[in-house]
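Tokens for chain A. Residues wanted.
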């Protein structure tokens, strides 16, 4: 009996060693093939391979050098996490069939970039177009609108070292796709973005024709001195005290948001002021309705948009209420500090007055030929263009396409609302 147990233990150990060897050879084979394919563009090296029976496989000291850019990216440990050892062992065969596992996570520990390097300069060379999504990164800082590599260097940053994890999980029974991105950058902060997509096809190629529906999104930001450094740096550029710059920053944020035709409620501005005064954490959650019309939201009353988005906001762990806004066509005359209303400062930038639109009846469309109109269909699709004619129950409009124009038509019985530019 003792010999049987001994041989059984040896057999289990041998199988484990064979699995580890198979994993090591499989990863080496995949990496050698990838390195050969990428060799015309970059040099990829690593010092070792790691694996576990829990379905994890990784690379130690991964270095990617791009001669064309003259820069190097270093990752202390890169790891793929599978849903068990079985999916890990079948990973290479699945890739050959064009399939992806139902669950997978990519982890990059110690991802390091030089702030003065070409990678970072290329990333910051073209600031994102101003929008509601970029309002928080738009700063009042002298002659710059966004923080770039020059400003980061002047603020004392030399290298950016981050831990990054990107994970997804597909639930075939409910057709749900869960995406989660986490980044933690040393001396800057931690960010998390989580998406829940409904009606997701199990074949990635079908998503273009049948895009999934956004069911839930969460955005979290936990600051680690970065916001304080930005405010101190920009206050110095403007020659302002921290208290005065706080007012300037709130005023600037409000004006940037208003330039996108949105005027936030007092409660939201006051909450953002509290965050700038003591930057700890921001959290935003949206649970859009199934019939959410992402195009042409300005056709709806603000309170209806809030109901359709079903948002929740928390600043430094405290919920913000009420959540409300108004459509804005011009800059506001009042601004807010951390705890009280403030007056506009001399650093306020001018905001272009947006064009005004007025609702009209579909029956009155013929009299607006040559005018710019906005259309919202019953299925929630938004169109904008110049009205050319109405014929055979159809509306013909010219729409902007790139640098030119194109003509299209809409059926009158499909149009829900119409607005004309005054």
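Reply:
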């Amino acid at each position: 009996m003792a010999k049987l147990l001994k041989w059984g233990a040896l057999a289990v150990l041998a199988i484990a060693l064979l699995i580890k060897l198979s994993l090591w050879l499989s990863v080496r084979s995949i990496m050698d093939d990838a390195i050969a394919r990428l060799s015309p563009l970059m040099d990829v090296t690593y010092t070792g391979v790691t694996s576990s029976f829990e379905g994890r496989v990784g690379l130690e000291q991964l270095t990617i050098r791009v001669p064309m850019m003259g820069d190097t990216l270093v990752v202390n440990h890169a790891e793929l996490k599978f849903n068990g050892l079985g999916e890990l062992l079948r990973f290479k065969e699945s890739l050959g069939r064009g399939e992806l596992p139902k669950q997978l996570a990519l982890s990059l520990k110690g991802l390091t970039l030089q702030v003065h390097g070409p990678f970072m300069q290329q990333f910051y060379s073209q600031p994102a177009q101003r929008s509601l999504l970029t309002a928080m990164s738009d700063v009042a800082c002298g002659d710059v609108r966004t923080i770039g590599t020059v400003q980061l260097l002047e603020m004392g940053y030399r290298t950016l070292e981050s831990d990054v994890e990107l994970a997804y999980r597909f639930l075939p029974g409910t057709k749900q796709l869960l995406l989660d991105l986490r980044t933690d950058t040393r001396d800057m902060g931690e960010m998390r973005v989580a998406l829940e997509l409904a009606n997701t096809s199990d074949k990635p190629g079908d998503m273009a024709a049948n895009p999934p529906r956004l069911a839930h999104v969460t955005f979290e930001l936990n600051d680690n001195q970065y916001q304080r450094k930005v405010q101190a740096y920009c206050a110095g550029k403007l020659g302002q005290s921290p208290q005065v710059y706080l007012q300037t920053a709130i005023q600037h944020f409000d004006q940037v948001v208003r330039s996108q035709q949105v005027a936030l409620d007092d409660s939201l501005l006051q909450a953002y002021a509290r965050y700038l005064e003591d930057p700890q954490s921001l959290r935003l959650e949206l649970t859009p309705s199934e019939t959410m019309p992402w195009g042409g939201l300005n056709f709806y009353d603000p309170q209806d948009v809030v109901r359709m988005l079903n948002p929740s906001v928390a600043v430094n762990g405290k919920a913000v209420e009420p959540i409300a806004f108004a459509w804005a066509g011009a800059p506001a005359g009042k601004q807010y500090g951390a705890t009280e209303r403030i007056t506009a400062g001399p650093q306020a930038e001018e905001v272009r007055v947006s064009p005004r639109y007025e609702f009209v009846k579909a029956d009155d469309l013929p009299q607006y030929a040559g005018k710019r109109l906005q259309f919202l269909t019953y299925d929630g699709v938004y169109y904008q263009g110049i009205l050319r004619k109405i014929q055979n129950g159809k509306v013909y409009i010219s729409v902007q396409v790139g640098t030119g124009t194109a003509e299209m038509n809409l059926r009158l019985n499909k149009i829900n609302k119409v607005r004309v530019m005054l």
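The CA atoms of residues 396 and 409 lie 4 Å apart. The two ends are 94 Å apart (CA to CA).
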